[in-house]
Amino acid sequence: MLSLRSAQFIAATWHLVLCKPGQNHIACRNLRGMGFDVFMPLHMSDRRRRGRLQQEPMPVFKGYVFVSAGQGAGQWHKLRSTPGVAQLIGFAGGVPAQVPASVVAGLMERCDAEGLLQPDQDFARGERIRITSGPFTDFVTTIEHVDAESRVHVLLDLLGSKARVAIDPARIARAI
Description:
Layout: H1 7-11, E1 14-19, H2 24-33, E2 37-39, E3 42-49, E4 52-59, E5 64-68, H3 76-79, E6 85-88, E7 98-99, H4 101-109, E8 128-131, E9 140-146, E10 152-158, E11 161-167, E12 172-174
Antiparallel strand pairs: 1-5, 1-6, 1-7, 2-5, 3-4, 8-9, 8-12, 9-10, 10-11
């Protein structure tokens, strides 16, 4: 299996596979077993288990994985019957659609060795952000300052009063 950082892996021609609900990991395992190169970027997400919030890695694109032919070239027809796979995203006539290489390469550059998407570290004062996980999920606010440990400090409007909160950069994204 190729390393996530290898030039051959990044330069490959990538396609998109729709997985059956909740079966991203099953599809990845089976596709790798068939000789396909698979890339599924992950991010840390809060999940409630037995009444407690726990952080666990979840697919960034729920229900989708990126696939390159690798050693499985010429086996696209077998993909539909692979356990965990619903379909290969493509055009009429069964031609698989290509994902722009710049999109996949950009995602790979931001991932660590386990495929975990690393947050942008270059947040600046005054920038608008959206909190992506934790008790303030989906709050949109402005950065007050970034401290020496790279924690982002924001001012949240909670029930009519302002509260200063320090947030891990892994839990925020730029607001669109």
